[in-house]
Amino acid sequence: MRETSPVRYDHDRDSWDVFRYEDVYRVLSDHETFSSNRDALHPGKAESASLIDMDPPQHTKYRNIVSRAFTPKRVADLAPRIEQITAELLDKIAGKGEAQLIKDVAGPLPVIVIAEILGIPAKDRHLFKEWSDKLVESAAVQNTEADQALMMEKNRVSQELYAYFTEQLAARRANPGDDLLSVLLAAEVEGERLNEQQLLSFCLLLLVAGNETTTNLITNAIRAFAEQPELQTRLRENPGLMPGAVEEALRYYSPVASIPSRFATKEAELGGQLIKKGDQVVAWVGSANRDEAKFPHPDQFIVDRKPNNHLAFGWGPHFCLGAPLARLEGQIALQAILKRLANIRLQAGSELQPVTSTVVFAVQELPI
Ligand code: HEM
Predict the structure, then answer these.
(1) Residue bearing the CA closest to ligand 1, atom 4
(2) Number of structural domains in the chain
(3) Would 208 be classed as within a structural domain?
(4) Which of 20, 42, 279, 301 shows its CA 20 to 30 Å from the CA of 100?
(5) pLDDT in tens, 286-333
(6) ∠ at Cα 74 (178, 117), nearest 5°?
């Protein structure tokens, strides 16, 4: 596609697909031409309450507020706890000789971390997992009858989640703690705070954006290590290479295959095609990350690839807010898995089933 039709119109989905690094980079960087707000061309519509659908300057203000909850120090302070949670999960499979990586480790880890960051009691964590799975499932809906059902399910789950967080927020207002909800309630920029609706949308966004993506980063990396055992040897011998290996895993098997939500605010030329005002544009970051014009030997997993300016966390104003946390979780989990599980291989006879989605690049389970 990058060679023959780098920018093409998909008539079934009524949107443009953009495959080359250079073009994906432009779509994500140029928010004045490629808006994140579906309603940007409909003046009078209410401003979006969710960070991910906003454009600057509204986005800048809101992002500055929520960034208070994701400072480098707050993220770095989580390391010992992430190590402990990972160790507990690995203890449960120790000595068994086999594991279902997603069910046993990569699935629960980010959910527990996010729930703890938000100060959610352990007894409610299973709700989190259920909500985040349902929300992610419905994030890539198209216009079919099955999708209508998913949308209804998404609305139901969102209502449940909003009701739950409304209670949690009220409790923190009465009794603030050190958790992320309390920090968000108190955070202000230029005298402005988030209103209740914005707070609730942000909690929902964290679940959608932060759980399955991190699960898939860990799983996709272990998949690559199982497919290419020499990577395991190299990383076991040189643990200092792990941060680079996480970056390469993000590039090689990007957990987010495409970012579907950009809308042209004006006519624009892209890769020789004329994008009309109002058209939807899908940025294929998974393809951009394998672009031979940007990355030498793009189909090789090069642990110490430098430079490695992949777009797995997006780019521009919406660059993933949780990237430092995802990187930290990825590095800790992969290091611990390599240390505890010798000689990781896919279970004999297992066939990997891809997750059916155009947004997510992942397998349904990784039996190792
Ligand atoms: C945004 C990927 C983990 C929170 C994004 C975007 C991508 C992405 C591609 C850009 C979306 C756009 O441009 O429309 C990933 C990947 C992750 C990951 C691959 C794991 C490997 C996380 C985590 C959190 C998080 C752990 C939080 C706990 C967010 C938020 C945004 C975002 C809040 C919206 C930022 C904004 O609109 O300004 N992520 N993400 N992500 N991510 Fe992540």
Answers:
(1) 322
(2) 1
(3) yes
(4) 301
(5) 999 999 999 999 999 999 999 999 999 999 999 999 999 999 999 999
(6) 55
Distance CA 165, CA 310 (A): 34
The atom of ligand 1 lying closest to the CA of 261 is 14
Residue 334 has pLDDT above 90, yes or no: yes
Instruction: Work out the average pLDDT over 6-19.
Output: 97
Percent over 70 (pLDDT), the chain:
96
Count of C-beta atoms within a 10 Å radius of residue 148: 11
283-316: string of b/e by CB count within 10 Å (b at 16+)?
A: bbbbbbbbbeebbeebeebbbebeeeebbbbbbb
How far is Cα 200 from Cα 112, in angstroms, rounded to an integer? Answer: 19
Question: Ligand 1 pocket: which of 204, 254, 320 to mutate (most atoms <8 Å of CB)?
Answer: 320
Tens of pLDDT, residue by residue over 228-257, are 999 999 999 999 999 999 999 999 999 999
Between β-strands 280-283 and 15-18, what pairing exists: parallel, antiparallel or unpaired? parallel
Instruction: Supply the CATH number for residue 104's domain.
Output: 1.10.630.10
> Strands (DSSP E) along the chain, which ranges?
7-10, 15-18, 34-35, 259-264, 268-270, 273-275, 280-283
> What local confidence, expressed as pLDDT, does residue 144 receive?
62
| DSSP assignment letter at 279 | -
Q: What is the pLDDT of residues 125-134, one digit of tens each?
A: 888 878 877 7
- Centre of ligand 1 from the C-alpha of residue 313, in Å: 6
Please give the DSSP secondary-structure letter assigned to residue 276: P
Indicate the SS3 state at residue 283. strand
Is residue 34 domain-resident?
A: no
What average pLDDT does the segment 140-159 reach?
74
